[in-house]
Amino acid sequence: MQAWVDGRPQATLGLGNRGLAYGDGMFETLRVTAGQPRLLRRHLQRLAEASRRLALPLDLAQVEHEIARYAQAMGEGVLKLIVTRGDSPRGYATDPAAQPQRILQASALPAYPPSHASTGVVLFPCTTRLALQPALAGLKHLNRLEQVLARAEWQGGAFAEGLMCDTEGRVIEGVFSNVFLVTGRTLYTPDLSRCGVAGTLRAELLARAGSEGWVARVADLTLGDLAAADEVFVCNSVYGIWPVIACGELKWPVGVVTRTLQRLVRALLDS
């Protein structure tokens, strides 16, 4: 399906686009099932926060309308929305007259092996560290070079994901997913106020934990906390939840809590 720019079919952008020049913008990646964008409210909430913190004006009602139309046309797959500050003259200073651009792209769902969800995945312990930048923490901004470097650390199918820490050694996230630890009936996920991407499925799980009978905690987590966990899983809004069975010398079983949450998430993303 052809990409849209500002609500119209188009396949080109100007060379002065600040998204290309500086990574000046944000993006969202949505799963689309039967023409419906999943977790749309969560994606729009994160987009609104990015718009506010980056001072990048955005008509969210217009964006929601375009996403709905595009998702209906594509039917199934992955919808990527990119928002840039638009074209401007050379230089870091922003042009108040610049018009933000909205880009929609469609792709097929990734062909991940079913075993990732059923028997679990092994994480690669990445040496690339996430820099601390509270002004951008939690946002899905366009500069993802840290993740590019981390993903280049392993090749082949032995590892499905990587584990990333910050420069002070705290556990933060996967390369393209969020991390949860399970201890008893408590779900722990890293504090992302200094760096990292606050995923939409992460937000949904945190919001639903109480009604499902669990306690959810956002906290600074270390590799020691990881080692002490009963269960570990990673998640994102495209593939759902993968149990983690190993990372380096650490190993975990595929537990009951992870299985229960997988069933809940399948209903959110597939039905």
From TrEMBL:
Species name: Pseudomonas typographi
Cofactor(s) needed, names only, are: pyridoxal 5'-phosphate
The record's EC number reads 4.1.3.38
GO: which molecular function terms? 4-amino-4-deoxychorismate lyase activity
As for family, the record states: Belongs to the class-IV pyridoxal-phosphate-dependent aminotransferase family.
Protein name, per record: Aminodeoxychorismate lyase
Q: How does it assemble?
A: Homodimer.
Gene this protein is translated from: pabC
| Catalytic reaction equation(s) | 4-amino-4-deoxychorismate = 4-aminobenzoate + pyruvate + H(+)
Keywords of the record, alphabetical order, are:
Folate biosynthesis, Lyase, Pyridoxal phosphate
Enzyme class (EC, first level): lyase
Pathway info: Cofactor biosynthesis; tetrahydrofolate biosynthesis; 4-aminobenzoate from chorismate: step 2/2
